[in-house]
Each structure stands twice: as structure tokens, then as C-alpha cells.
Design brief:
- The protein is an alpha+beta fold.
- The chain folds into two domains: 61-175, PurM-like, N-terminal domain (60s Ribosomal Protein L30, Chain: A), CATH 3.30.1330.10; 179-344, PurM-like C-terminal domain (Phosphoribosyl-aminoimidazole Synthetase, Chain A, domain 2, Alpha-Beta Complex).
- Helix content is 32%, strand content 24%.
- The chain is built from nine helices and 14 strands.
- The chain has helices spanning 2-16, 36-50, 90-103, 124-141, 196-204, 222-231, 245-257, 272-281, 303-311; strands at residues 62-66, 69-78, 84-85, 88-89, 107-119, 144-153, 161-171, 187-190, 235-240, 260-264, 294-298, 320-326, 333-336, 342-344.
- The chain has a seven-stranded mixed sheet with strand order 9-11-8-12-10-13-14. Strands 1-2-7-5-6 form a five-stranded mixed sheet, with helices on one face. It has a two-stranded antiparallel ribbon with strand order 3-4.
- Helix 4 (124-141) links the parallel strand 5 and strand 6.
- The radius of gyration is 19 Å and the shape is globular.
- The two termini are 35 Å apart.
Length: 357
């Protein structure tokens, strides 16, 4: 086990030896977008300061050994605006997001924490509504919120309510997942249509005169992940496609494993309403966040089994195979377009959809 972990860490280290430095003097919204600026900030500041074997892979959750047990530990903060939106609110988003980070790490989610930063003057009725959503989401996911914290800041020092959650889950023996484990011949799948959450949030802000019947896809995917892993031993990596969308996940896989990812644009499931809104906004759906979808990297020989397993679950009925892993050009994501051409899908630059989670 240690030898395999070291091989993964060595591969990641080689991929990051030329990691860029943060050139900005002050933090910008782009540093929270999940794209190039975020990756630079994480690698040049946080990873450089806190580097260790457990942090180094930069997966959605750290994998820890406590005695004979293998645990996954994750944490996340939620600053979505608006707090309430079609399909959900900051409360169920916080629970589902943390459950999903544990699930795609191969863990069975067990326990969560909940921390609240509240602004003076925030309506108690809204807080009660948020907490009720968290309770319902936790019950649906089969987890317990077991501890937490509350802080109140002066009026104007926050934006109503921010939520931080952490989660712990148990990883079964034999489950080994990681972006660096992708290899040529693997297939790339998504568990459902992409971009619904990010577009829903943008439209809910009321800043754009666009009318679309959309709701966030926020959901806990631990049941769907468990179904996939039970049916398909050849799953090499899972990532939930949140900030930066599917495009960011694919770039992380290509970089971590030093492989190429080739995607068929026509195979990527996107609802017509999402595609239309993205066209009006000038945004590629591949970069738009989801909150109930994940990307799976699966042994090519098992792709049919994996797809069938996903589609047999209510959350995966519209799952699709969208691409494959090849040997070269290493570190790049290529898109075969609907027009017959090929283009590079790079990490996001800038932040077209700030504060979507």
C-alpha cells in the first residue's frame, strides 16, 4: 500500500515541479473560481506551507489511517448568493457538497460538522429554514451532524449567512481512487447532465433578463457512487464537478496522471435550457458548476458495466460516456467539437460565475 501511494505522490510531484507562483498582490474573485488562479493559489501558498503525504494528492478528501481503519476527511465552506434558489438553498448545498466529497473519495459518509457565520440582523426565520434543509439533506444521505459552531459578525461584515461543514467517512479495504491513477485506455463518464446548478444560481440573482425552467441539481451522490463501485472494480478515479465544472476536473486528471483526456463534445449531456443560457452568457457549459454530478474514470474494458450501473440508479439515469484517456499529449484535455475540429480545453481563466457554492 505504501509503495503504491509513494508512486502516486512521485507522479504528482513530477507534474507540479514547475508550479506557477501567485503573481497578484491581492486576492481576487478568480482565486475562488476553481480555475487557474485557484490552482496556483493552492499549490503556491497552501500546499507549499502545509505539504505532507496526506495533503499532497489534493483530492476532494484526505485519506487517513487510524489503527486498522481507513478514514476520509474533508471540509468546505459555502458562500452561495442568493441563499435560496430553485432546487435548494445554502443548507442542503452544504450537506450534499460535503457528503459528495467523501463519496467520490471512495468513503461511506458518516458524520458532519456545521459551522455558521451569521451577520447581525439576519432573519431568524431564514436561519431556521436553512437548518431544516440541512437536517432533511443529512437524513436523506444517511449521515449525522454531530458538532458545530456559531459566530455572529457586525452588520455589513458578512452577507447574511456563511456555512462551513466538515465530514468523516469510512473507506473499505481495497478501495483505491485518485486522479493520478488514470491510465491510457480508461473511459471518462459523467453521471448526468452538466451545468444546471451554476446556471440556476446566475438566473436566481435576477441580474439577467433570461427566463428558463431550471433548478439546481444539488443532491447527495453517495448512493450512486456505492452502486458504481459495487458493480465496477475498475473505477480508477471519481471527482464531483463543482467549481470550474467538468473541464477543471478533466484537467486535474490529465495533470495528475500525466495523460491526455479526449472528449467528444456531442456526447456531453447538457439540457437545452442550460445550453441556451450559456450561449447567451458566452459561457462554455463544461466550465459551469454542478452540485449533484461527478466524473468517473473507469477501465475501458468495464465501461459498459459502469454505464449500466449508473443508469440503473435514479440519479444516474442520464449518465454518459464522454471521452477516453490516451497517452499523449500528456497533461492536456482535447475536445473533438461538433463541427469536426479539435481544440484544447484549458483551465478556466477568470470567474464568470462567482459565489455559486
Amino acid at each position: 500500500m505504501i509503495d503504491r501511494e509513494q508512486q502516486v505522490l512521485d507522479r504528482i510531484d513530477r507534474a507540479r515541479r514547475r508550479a506557477p507562483k501567485v503573481r497578484e498582490e491581492r486576492i481576487t474573485l478568480s482565486h475562488g473560481s476553481g480555475g487557474k488562479a485557484t490552482h496556483t493559489l493552492i499549490e503556491a501558498v497552501f500546499l507549499d506551507a502545509f505539504r505532507n503525504r496526506m495533503l499532497e494528492p489534493l483530492e476532494d478528501a484526505a485519506r487517513l489511517r487510524v489503527g486498522a481503519a481507513r478514514l476520509a476527511l474533508t471540509t468546505d465552506s459555502y458562500v452561495v448568493s442568493p441563499l435560496f434558489f430553485p432546487g435548494g438553498d445554502i443548507g442542503d448545498l452544504a450537506v450534499n457538497g460535503t457528503v459528495n466529497d467523501l463519496a467520490v473519495s471512495g468513503a461511506v459518509p458518516l458524520y458532519l460538522t456545521a459551522g455558521f457565520i451569521l451577520e447581525e440582523g439576519f432573519p431568524v426565520a431564514d436561519l431556521v429554514r436553512i437548518v431544516a434543509s440541512m437536517r432533511a439533506a443529512a437524513e436523506a444521505a444517511g449521515v449525522h451532524i454531530v458538532t458545530g459552531d456559531t459566530k455572529v459578525v457586525q452588520r455589513g461584515k458578512a452577507d447574511g449567512c456563511y456555512v462551513n461543514t466538515s465530514g468523516v467517512g469510512l473507506i473499505a479495504n481495497g478501495v483505491e481512487l485518485g486522479a493520478a491513477l488514470a491510465k491510457p485506455g480508461d473511459a471518462i463518464l459523467v453521471s448526468g447532465p452538466i451545468g444546471e446548478h451554476g446556471v440556476t444560481i446566475m438566473l436566481a440573482r435576477g441580474e439577467l433578463d433570461i427566463d428558463a425552467d431550471l433548478a439546481s441539481d444539488t443532491a447527495a451522490v453517495n448512493g450512486l457512487v456505492a452502486t458504481l463501485l459495487a458493480a465496477t472494480p475498475g473505477v480508477h478515479a471519481l471527482r464531483d464537478a463543482t467549481r470550474g465544472g467538468v473541464a477543471t476536473i478533466l484537467n486535474e486528471v490529465a495533470k495528475a496522471a500525466q495523460v491526455s483526456v479526449v472528449v467528444d463534445e456531442g456526447a456531453v449531456p447538457v439540457k437545452a435550457e442550460v445550453r441556451g443560457a450559456c450561449e447567451l452568457l458566452g459561457i462554455d457549459p463544461l466550465y459551469v458548476a454542478c452540485e449533484g454530478r461527478f466524473v468517473a474514470v473507469v477501465d475501458g474494458a468495464e465501461v459498459d458495466t459502469a454505464l449500466a450501473a449508473l443508469r440503473a440508479h435514479p440519479l444516474g439515469e442520464q449518465a454518459a460516456v464522454i471521452g477516453r484517456v490516451t497517452e499523449a499529449p500528456a497533461g492536456l484535455v482535447l475536445l473533438n467539437t461538433a463541427f469536426g475540429g479539435t481544440r484544447i480545453v484549458d483551465l478556466l481563466v477568470g470567474d464568470p460565475l462567482p459565489r455559486i457554492c
